[in-house]
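User: Can you help me understand a structure? I only have the sequence.
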Amino acid sequence: MFSVSLPRPSISMNPAGEVTWGQDVAITCSITTQHLGGTFILQKTSGSFRKTQTSSTNSVTFSILKVNFDNEGAYQCQYQTQISSRDFSSPLSDSVRLSVTVSLPKPSISMNPAGEVTWGQDVGFTCSISTQHLGGTFILQKTSGSFRKTQMSSSNSVTFSFLKVNFDHEGSYQCQYQTQVSSRDFSSPFTDSVRLSVSVPLLQPSINLTSPNKGLAWGSEGAEVTRGYSFVITCSISSHYPGGVFSLIFSGSNITDAKPAVNNSASFNFPVAEYEHQGNYSCVYEVTLSSRKFTSTETTLISVIITLPLLLLVSTVVAGILLVPLLVPLLVLVVVFLVLRRRRGAREPGAHFQTQLSVRNHHEDFEEEEEEERYRNFEEVHECMRQEQTRGMEEEDGDEDHDYGEEEDNGHNHVGSEDIYALVEGQGEDDEDSDDDYVNVQQPFDEDTLDIYGEHEDIYQNI
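Assistant: Let's start by predicting it. Here is the structure, written out as tokens:
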């Protein structure tokens, strides 16, 4: 009797290690022997699984298609052959372990609308995955904080909707997929994150001016409002934000007026237009959302010009036209008066002797000053005549008759002086115009001057 000793077969698995659920696996058994044509047996170390395959070579490969958790376990190979009608079996090979896992890929995440989102807008997050393990659950959560939202789906994607987002929704979001396979739970990796940013873009408000009682006209420089009429400035904005406040700004001052927005507008009333209301106006809208304050840009400026009422303006013009005929004669009289006064002030009163003596009479407002001036003029005349008389006596050679004659002449001169004084004094009592005073003074002086010089000529002839 003879004996056949078969060596221990070898076993290998491809892919080696952990195998993904549903993947194909190949287990190869091989032996080094000259007794070919036998049968390779693949079996689990536990359980009833057993597979055989006859091969004319020294190896065979067992394929397990789309492995699942039922295929998990330790596998061994054995080789059996028949020699001379006798069966011989090799020892069992070492075991290899088949581990099945469910490897879920990383899901994807998208946000609509993408980028910055307006406060109060609706936002949708879509999570999707490429896997054969459908019917699982999608999870949407923030990268920080406790926010977590789940949704089951029979498909490979789901959409999470956020209605009317606010600042509480701001942050970074990511998705994960979880499923159960053969009563075992599996989770996908987290997706990349997307950031939700909430903003409050405010449009520029509009400004409008009206006058309920038709006291408004639009000119090239702005709104012309008639003084005393009422006008209304209305600020409005296109906005879906609740509430808000409009501020009316008066340019060139720190005066502002604020009113709450009603249906996205506010009206500022001016019952009686006055000049102090003239200037440039603009509006600003302000809203508070989630304890944050947002302010719009200013509106374009609107210029308000306060004008006179038309009836008052026409009355003023008509009154001015009617007064012109009355004012012209009055202006002529004023001009004539000023011209006469100027000429009168330019005249210089007085009487002149050949010795360049002049008697000047300045007619002042006070009579005492006029009287003193007249006495002063007389004394000057009298002194001059006395000196003339003395010179005549010195030139005389002692002719007594001549002296007597001269004395008579002097007496004549004395009488002339008294006449002059009387005339000058009479001027002070005259209340007529100063021009009459000048005439009265000049005429007596002219006569006396002739008499004086006439007498002197007689004296010189006698000498």
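Now, to help you interpret it: The chain has four domains: 10-101, 108-199, 206-310, 351-462. Residues 350-367, 396-463 have pLDDT under 50 and may be disordered. Let me know which part you'd like to focus on.
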